[in-house]
Design brief:
22% of the residues lie in helices and 26% in strands. Helix 7 runs parallel beside helix 14 and helix 8 runs parallel beside helix 9. The protein is globular. It is an alpha/beta fold. The strands form nine sheets. It has an eight-stranded mixed beta sheet, with helices on both faces.
Length: 765
């Protein structure tokens, strides 16, 4: 049965991964997972073995020997299929393209200068964060090394030189930099476009500089983007060191073979944290053994490296969360208490909320005719696609454009080209009420779906529709905040619903951080503006907040495992906003659920002292892989070494995860019960007593045994059982198809250790 599932998933992945070429005689890049223990002794190196027995040396692009054993090579599909039958080859998969998941936020996380995690960790000065992204713009103030101590002695990396990047661009802050282009060059006819890219670690896109400075940027005064978000820019771990690994390239994305090579190099170089704001763009998760991010991150985590990744930007759709492996910390996005209002004022007096980062000449209250070009089923015009607008219709007017298909800022340029004076960008129903600011090149405001409908109705029914846009600059202290961002990837977990994903949320909306000089703030070719900082939104921006947080925790507690660091953040996460109310879903305005926020919003003021943690070992992860039906050879694709599964198949729900999910088959009716097990480790005061508090979902009974855990100087670990009993006749599942509760351990003092509980039903296979 397991082998047939494996075959189906291989076929599924083939169609999921769109091929770069289609002819069997044309070369493509394939990744080969090899059992390195089978190397004949006659070969002195693995490269010698691979180039002699598997393929010609010049065809080999990358060698993998740290988080993964094998190589990538440019071969024909027929050659790849033949190599699949080699006894030493465990797996073969085609190179796939992935996409990027595209400052006041440290204070919003509970960090303060005088005390707490910043001071206890010396701002992360002894921790190295590896950022897998689009590279780095080293001249930015965020990357200066003033008053930083020597580079940690354990660092083994290099400063790889290339176009406009030499050894002087590395320092005590940027301790290393590499670029990985062999996969891209093999996949692209003519190679990388050198007119828009640098064949070096230098960042031509801006995304990598932004994420790196969010995680670990130095303090930079008078930071702003065209006057917006003025203040002091500072990363979450401002003294942590940065190692930049350029795996994504402007206009061509990120290839699996290059990503895996960067994981291999980063772990070998000696990073402590890996931050990767990259994922699949199709919304369909790959099984772990066919996902190089999952494979690379397992190898990193097994060697003590914490890996955080973005949850994807396909929300608010259910099951849209990406990067699902349980050894990855998966981060969704929330808002912060800062906004950039740009209200739309209609001629009938109505004022509708919008946002914008437009910095040009304002409209100063002047009213202009407003028009919606999407009447009579004109889809391209409604989206303001290139060459879709009738200049006679829009000249001198504010144009309503629907969001979708082409970049938001590019729509404004289409309006400008046709003679329009401004734009109102309206969310589609799928975007809901979620708003993100854009550095528009014409007066423009982004509005929610309901506001967009109201404006369109006014424009179509009023005999003389007019409007203006009121730009209000930067507003601080916005309530409520945080709010779960509309675009943030949502659960349930599409591979293994027993593991709740995302793990937590962090600031990811309108985040100010460093930017490249290679492109303007919008990233489009015609934008010639230069800015030291830029404001971006996405789970790409949320991920480095957690990476920086992990660096601080690693510095404060160097012996903690990656799982313990994640647990500290998850069990102490906040469930209320700055109005002391439950977290809201931006897309609906209603209460959010753990499928939206995981365990809650990152709160570093509490994560520094979690009391108890849920630790997970490599053996635990192997047991989990056995529990989901993977055969031992399949598991070895991920783990590098041979494994043995227990005789009795374990339950995936018993992985010692900080959240708890109980699945019940829909085919069974009546009173059903399931018992799950967890183990906690005391990292607080040696003598402690914790008591359980249970919040049971409606129609569910949750019990914990024992309900009291006693720790001493010699007893650091305690286990407990959670029994979930449901009456399917009275079980009430919400719109998401699940019911939610919690198990919380209290010590009577400052420690509150909370685990989300999810109860849901599944259709049996």
């Amino acid at each position: 049965m397991a082998s047939s599932i494996f075959l189906l998933l291989l076929l599924f992945f083939f169609f999921l991964c769109s091929p770069i070429t289609s002819l069997k005689t044309e070369k493509k890049t394939f990744i080969f997972r090899v059992d390195s223990g089978l190397k004949p002794s006659v070969f002195s190196t693995h490269y010698h073995w691979y180039s002699s027995e598997f393929t010609e040396g010049p065809r080999i692009l990358h060698l993998y020997d740290t988080v993964f054993h094998g190589f990538s090579a440019s071969v024909t599909p027929e050659d790849a299929e033949n190599l699949r039958n080699h006894p030493a080859v465990l797996a073969v998969f085609e190179d796939c393209r992935r996409e990027l998941h595209t400052t006041r936020s440290p204070q919003f996380l509970g960090l303060r200068n005088q005390k707490g995690l910043w001071s206890n960790s010396d701002y992360g000065s002894d921790v190295i964060i590896g950022v897998l992204d689009t590279g780095i713009w080293p001249e930015r103030r965020s990357f200066f090394d003033l008053n930083l101590g020597p580079v940690p002695k354990r660092w083994r990396g290099v400063c790889q030189t290339g176009v406009r990047f030499d050894a002087r661009n590395c320092n005590r802050k940027i301790v290393g930099a590499r670029f990985f282009a062999k996969g891209q060059q093999a996949a692209m006819f003519g190679g990388i476009n050198k007119t828009v890219e640098f064949l070096s670690p230098r960042d031509a896109d801006g995304h990598g500089s932004h994420t790196a400075s969010t995680a670990a940027g130095r303090q930079a005064f008078r930071a702003n983007m065209a006057g917006y978000a003025s203040g002091v820019a500072k990363g979450v771990a401002p003294k942590a060191r940065i190692a930049a690994y350029k795996v994504c390239w402007k206009d061509s994305g990120c290839l699996d073979s290059d990503i895996l090579a960067a994981f291999d190099a980063a772990v070998s170089d000696g990073v402590d944290i890996i931050s990767i704001s990259i994922g699949g763009g199709d919304g369909i998760p790959s099984p772990y053994y066919l996902d190089p991010i999952a494979i690379g991150s397992y190898g990193a985590a097994s060697m003590g490296v914490f890996v955080s990744s973005s949850a994807g930007n396909d929300g608010p759709n259910g099951m849209s969360v990406t990067n699902l492996a349980p050894w990855i910390t998966t981060v969704g996005a929330g808002t912060i208490d800062r906004d950039f209002p740009a209200d739309v004022v209609l001629g009938d007096g109505h004022r509708l909320r919008g946002v914008s980062l437009y910095s040009g000449e304002p409209l100063n209250g002047q009213m202009f005719p407003v028009v919606y070009p999407g009447k009579k089923g004109m889809l391209a015009a409604s989206l303001c696609m290139e060459n879709s607008l009738d200049a006679k219709l829009v000249r001198g007017k504010i144009v309503i454009c629907d969001r979708g298909s082409n970049p938001r800022v590019a729509k404004g340029l289409v309006v400008k080209k046709a003679g329009g004076v401004g734009m109102i960008l309206a969310n589609a129903v799928s975007n809901g009420e979620g708003l993100v600011g854009d550095a528009h090149l014409i007066p423009a405001s982004n509005v929610g779906s309901s506001a967009g409908d109201r404006i369109k109705a006014y424009a179509s029914t009023h005999p003389n529709p007019i409007a203006t846009i009121d730009f209000k600059g930067t507003v601080i202290g916005v309530k409520p905040a945080p709010v779960v961002a509309s675009f943030s990837g949502r659960g349930p977990n599409g591979l293994n619903p027993e593991i709740l994903k995302p793990d937590l949320i962090a600031p990811g909306v309108n985040i100010l951080a460093a930017w490249t000089d290679a492109v303007g703030p919008t990233g489009i070719v015609s934008d010639r503006r230069k800015t030291e900082f830029n404001i971006l939104s996405g789970t790409s921006m949320a991920c480095p907040h957690v990476s920086g947080a992990a660096a601080l925790l690693k510095s404060a507690y160097p012996d903690w495992s990656p799982a313990a660091i994640r647990s500290a953040m998850m069990t102490t996460a906040s469930l209320v906003d700055n109005s002391n109310r439950s977290l809201i879903d931006e897309s609906t305005g209603k209460h959010s659920t753990p499928y939206d926020f995981g365990s809650g919003h990152l709160n570093l003021g509490r994560a520094i002292d979690p009391g108890l943690v849920y630790d997970i070992t490599n053996d635990d992860y192997i047991t989990f892989l056995c529990s989901i039906g993977y055969e031992m050879k399949t598991i070895q694709v991920i783990t590098r070494t041979p494994v043995r599964c227990p005789t009795r198949k374990p339950s995936p729900a018993n992985l010692n995860y900080p959240s708890i999910t109980a699945l019940f088959p829909t085919s069974n009716r009546g009173l059903l019960s399931k018992t799950l097990f967890r183990t906690v480790t005391n990292v607080g005061q040696s003598e402690a007593v914790y008591r359980a508090k249970v919040e049971s979902p409606r129609g569910v009974t949750v019990t914990v045994k024992p309900s009291r855990l006693v720790f001493t100087s010699t007893i650091k670990k305690r286990s407990y059982a959670v029994t979930v009993t449901v009456d399917t006749k009275s079980l009430v599942l919400g719109e998401s198809g699940a019911a939610f509760g919690s198990v919380t351990w209290f010590d009577g003092g400052r420690h509150v250790v909370r685990s989300s509980v999810v109860v849901t039903q599944t259709v049996p296979l």
